[in-house]
Write a structure and sequence with these properties.
single chain; mainly alpha
Length: 70
């Protein structure tokens, strides 16, 4: 059996960005990927710009909602 990847794929990152933009927690994101929260944390730390992309997706979604309310 092969070893698990230490980083996230581009497809996984895009999924996490979408999940973040609708308010999912890190635990929910881990469940979506079928990994533990600890494993997701490790993969986020090992993947360049992953945390920034997820945070940006959440900020962008919040800004869109705020803009539509204003």
């Amino acid at each position: 059996m092969g070893r698990a990847r230490k980083t996230l794929t581009e497809d996984e990152l895009q999924d996490l960005e979408r999940l973040s933009s609708v308010g999912c927690t890190q635990g929910q994101m881990a469940g979506f990927l079928g990994v533990s929260e600890k494993t997701l944390t490790s993969k986020l730390d090992a993947t360049k710009d992953a945390r920034e992309r997820i945070a940006r997706a959440k900020i962008d979604a919040t800004a869109r909602v705020a803009g539509s309310l204003y």
